[in-house]
Each structure stands twice: as structure tokens, then as C-alpha cells.
Specification:
The protein contains five helices and seven strands; from the N terminus they run H-E-E-E-E-E-E-E-H-H-H-H. It is of the alpha+beta class. It has a four-stranded antiparallel beta sheet with strand order 3-2-5-6, with no helix packed on it. It has a three-stranded mixed beta sheet with strand order 4-1-7. The chain is elongated and about 75 Å long. The chain starts with a helix and ends in a 7-residue tail after the last helix.
Amino acid sequence: MLFGLVKIPVLIFIYLLLSKASISATIKGYVYDLRTRTPMINAAVHLDKTNLYTVSGLNGSFVLKDIPSGAYTIVVSYVSCQIFKQTIKIKEKDVFTIEARLEQNKNSYTEEIVVLGKGDKTSERASRSLEQSVPQIMNVVSAQTIKISPDLTVAGILKRISGNKYSMASLIKLRVPS
């Protein structure tokens, strides 16, 4: 009896899996620059009025899977290029291939995009990140740690670092053991 109860959900799962595979289609394609014929990396590819989307890879290729039958408009866009649109009709189990050639937008004055960022190199997080990224063993004291330290001098802070065998005098090239 128990085996029969387990068998029914397994059969339903297999049926749903096979039925989805039999009614879904795939759209494959490539995105190229119209003038230079070079692949366009990270071009946005989506089916209009759906939540199906992807981006093109290093060779300009893309794949959209599990698309139900119907009529769709595929939209391909890229920064400073005209948008490519093509209406397609997909049937069950179709594998549709598209080659999108994008043209530079003549009205676009974007010569370059500059992204600026500023990191806080004085934070505790930046200090821990620096410690983790160097190939040798290193102890780092952040500016924030120095601010909240009860020590009055940097020499006092250096004494708190494990493995430190030199005093402040050693930092100014005088080898005086502590």
C-alpha cells in the first residue's frame, strides 16, 4: 500500500517533466555589430511582455529555453546601439535561430561611460580584506582601530599585535629588542 502511494507522485512528476519538455521551445542566436561584425558581449536579449531574458556571451551567443508556443517579439539591446526587434511565431519543440546585427545609434553621443567608485580604505573591513588577500602573513591595523584604541601612541598599538617582536624604535631603523 505504501509503495503505491509513493509511486503515484513519482509518476505525476515524470509526466509533468516530460509534458513540459514536449511543449517548450528554444530560441538560440548571436548578436553582432553591424559595421565591424564583431560579437557583442552582454547584449540584453528578452521576449517582450514576458519575464524571459538573457544576455549574450563572449562569442555573442545567447539561448532562451522553455518558451511556450505563441507569437513573441524578441528584443535585443546594447548601450549606444539601436534596438533590434523581430516578431516570431514559436511552435512546440521548435528551435528558432536568430542573428541580430546591431547598428550604432547615430543620435547617441556616448563616447565612453565612466564609472567612478570610492572605497573606504580606513575601515576595519578594508583592513581584514587586505590581510586575507596578501600571500604572506600580515597583521593590519585600520585607522578606525587606531582611533578607538586606548593606547596613546602607535608604539602602544604595535605591542598589541600578536607576533610583533620589535618596539617603536625598530620602526625608525634602530634595532632595539622589546
